[in-house]
């Protein structure tokens, strides 16, 4: 499915799937302001990179991969010294079994996924041997028939932070899908379709794809973190359901588009309906300021890959989401070029991580091409 076709079809639907285009108005932020924020953010990241090419710590391949990707998204070439050092650090963490992490990492699945995305984007040919082995490692992590997990099991198709068990969750499964697509897998790849089964079970939508009691208790079209352990950081509703929240709903939408779903699928319609009803760039809906920069990165990526131009909220107001997101990030940027979350949950008190997420979000704020 071409994403252009996805958008054309999406635009024909009526509210609450509210996507509107106003050709007479320019979309997106001021290009000069966008370029300046990116330049300042990239300059900050260069100051926090260690001599070995890493960010945050020598063992933090995940943050290093995100920061390296963020520098490239800000326009730095792969032979820029900071980018080259980051890529070398990531490639140097590749293990014989395919994982890209330090030997004792407990989050090697997540780290491998983000590493595959950045290496594939930097130089697919150069890093092809590493990416191919990493792809095999990631596929082996998936809960499926090879592990005795059948399609009716709620864990089916998901992945956890690392191999060897654990509880699969939507965040890691979304990273898996993006990594497989970056490595060249098509939307109909069996692993991606298995992952879609898991993603659908993270959606509060009673349907043939999810018949759990928790989904029917909420049934608002949003997404939560973990259907296996029945966990949502946003808590439970009085009816016993798992509350939907912002970052996971955008992760769910992004994953569905990567897996080939279009506007005719009720899961996509319900997700965009939830997003319209909960539209904001002030907070991570349902979570406040927790995971705020992760939310911004997913917000931008999901709406960009779905080619949504304007998003209409519950009041009927059509928003230029690119302009809104960029303006919010401009306001939050520190004088030294960084971003940081006062709420330190999920490591966003680390300015290298928050700045990487912010730069990746700004990359999706580029105005759409005009005909």
UniProtKB/TrEMBL annotation:
Keywords: Signal
Signal peptide residue numbers: 1-20
Protein's UniProt keywords contain Signal: yes
InterPro entries: Terpenoid_cyclase/PrenylTrfase
Protein name: Squalene cyclase C-terminal domain-containing protein
